[in-house]
Amino acid sequence: MAATLPAAGPATAAADPQRLTVDLDASEGPVMLGANGSLYGLSDEGVPSDAVMEPLKITSISQKPEGGAQHPNGDALTVSKSFFRTGGGEINVMMQDIYAKWPYEDLGIDDYLPKVDKIVKEISADPNSDRFVYIPFNEPDQIWYKLDVKDQAQYEKNRDRFFKDWKTVYQRIRAIDPDARIAGPNEAAYHTRLLKDFLAFTKRENVVPQVMTWHELGSGSLRDFQAHYDDYRRLEREAGIAPLKINIDEYANRRDLSVPGQLVQWVSMFERNKVFANMAYWDAAGNLSGHVVRSNIPNGGWWLFRWYAGLTGNTVKVTPPQPNTVDTLQGLASLDSTRRQAQVLLGGADGDSDVVVQNVPRSVFGRTVTATVAEAAWSGYEGQHAAPRVLARTKVKVADDGSATVPLRGLHKMSAYRIVLTPGGSGTPAAASVPWSASYEAEEAAVTDGKVYTQGTVSNANGYAASGTKDVGSLNQPGSKVAFTVDVPKDGAYELAILYGNQSGGPATQKLSVDGTEPVTVTYPSTENWTYRARKDLRVQLTSGKHQLVLAKGDAEVTLDRIDLTGDTGAASASYEATLADIGGKPSYDYSSSAGVGTGALVLRSGDKAVFDVYAPRDGYYTVTPRTSAVVRIAVHGEKVTAAPGRPLRLYLVAGNNRVAMTSVHAAVRSLDVSGDGSASGTLSYEGASATLAGGAKLVDSPHASAGSSIGWLGNSPSSTAEFTVTAPRSGRYMLVVHYAHNDRRDNGHAYNTDIMSRTADIRVGDAAPRKVTFKNTWSWDDYWTVGVPVDLAKGANKVTFGNATAWAPNIDRIELGRVVG
């Protein structure tokens, strides 16, 4: 499954590898990170979590005006608090989303203007009003104005109506907010005819937008955008307008979202041209357009954007094998001479590639470089993805012509890859440990009473992504099953990952049997729909050789896409390179030795900080070991602990991403090593039945709750509460993990949006002030997810009370508490 990088010697392949060239001497300007935005990427305060937002350094998002009727959540002012708190850039306000229907009700400009007044007054009164951008019209080429008609006479009539309304609304906004930034015209697709006229009109009437926006929503955009961009800049020059900031505020199709190998093609295109871009909103709000699982868990697409956020310095020219071509190998690259790092992100094609890095500056890197290669694979929209596996660490000699070649073999088109080049120094990097792995497509297995379906393709770009573009569904008959023939190299345990979909309205099951043995039950959590892919991980014991793995119908219906088998290497572990961490202050970079993780050491002094993004597969305790030259301080979940070099700590991490900060008076840091599977040893656990319930809150039967019941009917009244008494063995900072479920929805009649809603609960510990916590929809009332909340407990008995005076709280299965430092 993994790509490989040979340690030495010429690469051998059946066909000549594709060649992707990076020129470190051809700067494109500072890294902008413009392409990481999202339409309705945030739904509520805390959805997504701060821990998955902050690492991405998101430059812009698009949301609806406060109280807009288009969707039940995603209000710009509401989500602005968490967006700005986590370092977000600016918020585009989709002003017409004040309307309920899609397409918007066309009630005339006189109906719209009072709504414009209300929106602008609210935003201009916000302390961060300068970080909002008004988008007064959305897709006017299709909605209200029909500016895409072919008939020239009708076009001119429609155009003149639009231009009149543009001027009216523009001036209305500026009358209330004189410093307002306004964006448009915001077409659903690029139209030379309209933009030429629009630029001339807005310049003549002094209503030129501050930001130029249009949408790129076709699979052909990967081919056509460069021509659109070049044409638009030509129109600007001809109109005598200085270059405007561009935001492609809707981009990509369903088949692209969540797929690292697709996304890297879009991102490279936008970053190269230094434009901002927001991914489209095809499904549910609050998951960064399909890149955050639940509220806090990365998928493969999230890791691609985390890598993107890690680019520093300047981007440099990348020449792919086929520029501006759909579904081909593409890439972007950066050079940071200060940090002495070059990075290349690439993907989008199967097979082999040679990445040729030209003009490697000897003054920065020396005569050898360490090349570190990692893979971010596709794990589905709703499938968790651990920290990307390092595939290779090797020293590469810089040739006499100043080039260094990194051969990649066995690339997967749905994956993205990162190459990091750092000075070679002395020593030898630790060899990457890559376990055996193989993938098996469901459509290529033996299917009984099921049907093979084709999903997202170039011709059906808004179909959902599927491995190999096909999956097996309609497994709804008593005899439905899929039999996979697998072949493993040795006896032992194997990790089995099942890519699936489940729209049964609750957890669904299948029966897994190996070579006809007694089947075991596999339980699949709900997904948004049967094509919204998730991932189920389990473990199987196999002997060397061929086996038949059969997944047969259990309760309800599950769709199967692919299974992956990976050799079990024991407890999960990862080394997070310090020189690739987020930093605060001005630490220095020491590449004198490439031992260990290969990328040298980050030297922290007083006032410096390194922040690591640490993945945990589940809530629980992990072993965290700092590879440092001196004592450091580690901070996580609001708790700080002193750590000696190489001495393991036992820390409580929550499922998904954890931001772990490190400081020191003076220490060289190579990595933060994390291992374990999330031990529950030493945690406190309290079932819902142990809580004291009041004001109508009561236990309700729930077969999927841990003890067969959960707390329901909680909240919607000041008197409706659930009070747990928890006994802490000692005082300190704990993580309170709430197991909950709810399925609040409001159908706004949009066929392609699932309007899920969040619930909140006020959580009070002892006599402290209550804290409002948001709980995302779990897709069904019988699927229990977790949210972690840091709390301070005193030794002995503590009261932990849940309530919500004005709305319903989620159903609560149980709570767990673990001291952050175990």
Descriptive overview:
By secondary structure, this protein is mainly beta. It is 14% helix and 41% strand. The strands form 11 sheets. Strands 17-16-19-14-13-12-1-15-18 form a 9-stranded mixed β-sheet. Helix 3 (109-124) packs parallel to helix 4 (152-176) and helix 5 runs parallel beside helix 6 (221-239). The protein is globular, with a radius of gyration of 27 Å.
Task: Write a compact overview of the structure shown.
The protein has 822 residues and is mainly β.
Shape: globular
Number of DSSP E strands: 52
- Estimated helix fraction: 10-25%
Helix and strand content put the structural class at mainly beta
Q: Radius of gyration from the CA trace?
A: 27 Å
Main sheet: strand order: 17-16-19-14-13-12-1-15-18
| Terminal Cα span | 36 Å
The amount of beta strand, in percent, is: 35-45%
List keywords for this structure.
822 residues, mainly beta, nine-stranded mixed β-sheet, eight-stranded parallel β-barrel, globular, disordered N terminus
Topology:
Elements (H helix, E strand, L loop, with lengths): L17 E13 L6 E3 L10 H4 L6 E4 L12 H10 L4 E5 L14 H16 L7 E4 L16 H25 L4 E7 L4 H13 L6 E6 L4 H19 L5 E7 L8 H13 L3 E4 L12 E2 L3 E2 L1 H10 L4 E6 L10 E7 L4 E7 L3 E8 L3 H4 L2 E9 L12 E9 L6 E8 L4 E8 L13 E5 L4 E3 L2 E4 L15 E4 L7 E8 L3 E10 L6 E7 L5 E5 L9 E9 L2 E9 L5 E9 L5 E5 L4 E3 L3 E3 L10 E5 L3 E8 L3 E9 L3 E5 L2 E5 L5 E5 L2 E8 L2 E14 L4 E4 L4 E3 L3 E4 L7 E4 L8 E8 L3 E10 L17 E7 L5 E5 L9 E9 L2 E8 L7 E9 L3
Parallel strand pairs: 1-15, 2-3, 2-9, 3-4, 4-5, 5-6, 6-7, 7-8, 8-9
Antiparallel strand pairs: 1-12, 10-11, 12-13, 13-14, 14-19, 15-18, 16-17, 16-19, 20-30, 21-24, 22-23, 24-29, 25-28, 25-30, 26-27, 26-29, 31-41, 32-35, 33-34, 34-41, 35-40, 36-39, 36-41, 37-38, 37-40, 42-52, 43-46, 44-45, 46-51, 47-50, 47-52, 48-49, 48-51
Helix pairs in contact: 3-4, 5-6
